[in-house]
Structure formats: C-alpha cells, structure tokens
Amino acid sequence: MHIVIMGCGRVGSTLAHILEDKGHSVAIIDQSPEAFRRLRSGFRGRRITGFGFDRDVIAEAGIEQASAFVAVSSGDNSNIISARVARETFGVDNVVARIYDPRRAEVYQRLGIPTVATVRWTADQILRRLLPEGAEPLWRDPTGAVVLAELDTGHLWVGEKVSALEEHAGTRVAFLSRMGEALVPERDSVIQDGDIVHIMARADDLERVNAAVAARSGEDA
User: Fold this and answer.
1) CA 190 to CA 177: how far, in whole Å?
2) pLDDT tens sequence for the chain (221 residues)
3) Which residues pair with 49 in a beta bridge?
4) Cellular component terms, GO, for this chain's entry (predicted)?
5) How far is it, in rounded angstroms, from Cα 176 to Cα 178?
6) Where in the chain is the domain with CATH 3.40.50.720?
7) Which are the contacts of 208, defined by CB distance < 8 A and separation ≥ 6?
8) Are strands 46-49 and 25-30 parallel, antiparallel or unpaired?
9) 15 contacts 30 by C-beta, under 8 angstroms
10) pTM of the predicted protein model
11) Parallel, antiparallel, or unpaired for β 115-116 and 172-178?
C-alpha cells in the first residue's frame, strides 16, 4: 500500500520506518524540513515540506494513490482538517487522526473519523497501574456507551468458572490475559491465579459490576 503520514515527529517517523519495513511505500509531510532528520539515512519514502491540509502538498505526497492517511502532527486542528481533506476531497477511506483533547476526539469519532486521544489514553494506562481496583475502561465505542474494561476479581475468584463470574456479576467476559497472552474463554474455563479478566459492558453498568464482585468477595472472606 501507499500511505501518507502528516507529521514527522517521534510517532510519525516511527510509523514511517515500521511501514516501510513491512514493504509499504510511504510519503511523510511536515512543515519543518528539520523534522526529517528523525528519519534514518536509508529511508526511501518521499519527504514533503508543507502543511498536510494543503491540497497541493497532500497531492504531491501521492494522496490520490494512497490506501491510508495518518495525521500525527502536534496540532489537533491541523490533524483533523487534513484528515477531512484526505477523506472528503480525495476519497481515502482509511484515515486516522491523533487528537490530544479527548472531548474533541469523541466528537470526530462520531463523525466517522477514527481518532487516537493520546493524552487520555496515556493517563488511563497509568491510572490502571496506580489504581488497579475495580473495572477501568480500556476502550470505548464512539458513542461512549459500551466499554472494554479490566476487572479486578481478586484472588477469591481463582478456581471459579468464567460462567460463574458472569452469572454472579451480570456481565460478559470478553477475554482473559494469562501470562502475557490473550485467551478467549469457554463457559467452563477456570480463572487461574494471575489472570486478568476483561469484560464488555455498558459504561453505566461498571459501578454495579464492581459492587457485585466486591460483595461476593466480601461474603467469601
């Protein structure tokens, strides 16, 4: 595939190298020529100086032949405008934009433009390590109504069947993380020591699920 990247910062340059190593052709755009110093000396892709939302610049990058467009500059406005130009003007279906403001990211998700809210994602990852208790969202659908969350089941659920946990908490287990690998459980699968349980649930139901798991653990204790 041919892929156009706007932004030659750490993320953009890393993506360019990975994609090129996978055999794809890459064009990378940045308003500063100095940014291209982040690219390795053997980088074979095109380097275009300019703004990714400028139609002439994006055309020079080969957007008309592109299968995907990625906007990862340091500006939310630049990223979303260039993503819309790529999709609405040049008809690129596979478009992703990095948005620092999570509230704006949710709006653009609903408009059909996939976004990565960097700051919110990083903060959530840290919080899950600092405050492991309870169900913490790993992913939300564009409407925010459905979430994928880690559920701290406690050691008292070790040895219990997944079906028992689902029935007791009134939720659905999506998968287990076991020794660094993901496992899609059967209903008679047994939770083992060290397993991380991931559930799919309504966002407004997480508090109830947490309470149900905590109440059961308290009864057994």
Assistant:
1) 13
2) 899 999 999 889 988 999 999 899 999 999 999 999 999 999 999 999 999 889 999 999 999 999 999 998 988 888 888 988 998 899 998 888 888 776 677 666 666 677 776 655 555 555 555 455 555 567 777 677 888 888 877 778 889 999 999 999 999 999 998 877 888 998 789 999 888 888 998 888 888 988 888 776 555 44
3) 30
4) plasma membrane
5) 6
6) 2-122
7) 170
8) parallel
9) no
10) 0.59
11) unpaired
**The residue to which tokens 């993320």 are assigned:** 11
CA distances from 89 to 81, 86, 116, 143, 194 (A): 11, 6, 22, 26, 50
**CATH classification code of 133-217:** 3.30.70.1450
CA atoms within 13 Å, Cβ hemisphere of 135: 29
What is the residue type of 11? V
Architecture of the 2-122 domain: 3-Layer(aba) Sandwich (3.40)
Q: What is the CA radius of gyration of the chain?
A: 22
Residue 217: what are its φ and ψ, rounded to 5°?
A: -65, -40
Rounded Cα distance between 36 and 22, Å, is 20
- Any idea how long the chain is? 221
Q: Which two tokens stand for residue 98?
A: 């990095």
- At 39, which amino acid appears? L
Nearest-angstrom CA–CA distance, 173 and 199? 4
Query: Where in the chain is CATH 3.30.70.1450?
Result: 133-217
Report the alpha-carbon distance of residue 90 to residue 92 in Å, rounded: 6
